[in-house]
Structure formats: structure tokens, C-alpha cells
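Protocol step 4 of 5: obtain the predicted structure for the target chain.
Materials: sequence only (see below). No template structures provided, no constraints applied. The aim of this step is simply to have a reference model before the mutagenesis design in step 5. Sequence pasted as it appears in the construct record:
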Amino acid sequence: MKRNIEIRQIILFIIGILGILDTIIVRAYVQGMDLGAFLPAIIGIACIILSLKPLYERHISRIHPIIRRFVYWSFMLFLFVFILLESCIIFGGIYQPSTDTEPEYLVVLGCGIKPDGSPTLALKNRLDLSMEYAKEHPDTYIVMSGGQGPNEPMPEAHAMAYYLIDRGINPERIIIEDRSSSTMENFKYTKQILGENDEIAFITNNFHVFRSNILAKRNGFTAYGYGAPTPGIVLINSYLREFFAIVKSLIFDHP
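Step 4 output (C-alpha cells):
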């Protein structure tokens, strides 16, 4: 039994170190820092603290049993909700919709550009998938949706449009929505542009499809979401961050 406990502590400690290293690596290779970048380190520190439990276990035993039970069941509830929502996020990105009709508009959601105006890898994957879609559906208009962040040289929608035009997409097919600063605003402002047209396809990264579908419907769209690959360097970070983003959207993101 004692040996099993020691192995568990070693595993927790290793996971903790890996979480911290993940944040360090992401910080070195990815522009900017957000909750997704810090979460592996936060979880890693928590795992290291748990791995050192024998050092402070006698102090925990002095805490009132009701408080200990409350903390335990609160954590179990959080874990249940986390697993449930992460499952929705994962399967939402895997599922590929099919429709008997061809939406007249394809919405490409922005997600950041570099200081030189070129797309980040996550955005490049979205744009490359949008070009494939555009070639398969030559009558579809393409809405580039994304405003300008504080460290960006131009609105994301403009950089996205340049990327597609440089690769042969007819500029007359492109519609610009350059005010949005969140997924909710992507669909809100796109709805204002498209008016009564309520059926769209949209492209984002696979971790983002599930939440985007929810927010598209809240803005009155019948939406079909397609997920582009998430870059491996931020794969774990993106899926962890998306859990908290969904909780926030479910509570606060309403038209």
C-alpha cells in the first residue's frame, strides 16, 4: 500500500513538472500569454503540492470534517463538469456536419495575427481549410470575421482577406467583419451584416467548434461548424482554456 502511495506521488510530481514545462515552452514559442498558456503550470503546481501531501497531511487532519467533506465534494463536482464539457469539446471538433442545402455564406473566425500581419499557425490552419471549402463551393461568399487586438498591426479580418486573395480567392467573394473581439461578437456582427440570411457554415479550430455552434445559434444562425487542426504546441492549452471559456459563455454570452 505504501509503495502504491509512493508511485502515485511520483506520478503527480512528474505531471506537475511537465505542466510547468508546457507553460515555459508555450511562452517561448507563442506570441502573448493568456489563461490557456498559464493553466498547465497552475495545474502542475497543484500536482506538485499534492505529491508532497505526506509533509503536511497531519495539518489537514486538524481541519473540521465538514470542511474537508465540502472541499472534497466540491472538487468531485468540478471534476465531473470538467470531464463532461471536455468530452463535448473533443467530440464537437471531431463531428463533421452534413447538410442537404449549401449555405450561401462561410464565416471564418479570426484568432490572432503576428506583428508583420501574417496569420498565426492556428489561424493559418483555419484559412487553409476555408480555401478548400471555397474551391468545393464556388458560389459561397466568405465572411472574414475578426477585429484588431492591442498588439496587432491591422484587423484580423483584413489580414485574413489578404491571405486568401494572395492565394487566388476572388476578392469579390470576400466580406469583411472587422469589429469583433470575441466569438460572441464574431457572430453578432456577422448577423448584422448578413441580415435575414440565417444559414451559414463556419470554420474555426477543432477545439473551438462546440462553443462556436452554441454562440452561432444564440445569434439566430443555423450553423454548420468545421474544425481545422489545432497546432500541437498549444493543443493542451487550447482544450484546457476552452473549458473555462464555455463556462463563461454559457453564463454571460447572450444577445
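Step 4 remarks: DSSP finds nine helices and five strands in the chain. The chain has a mean pLDDT of 89.
Proceed to step 5.
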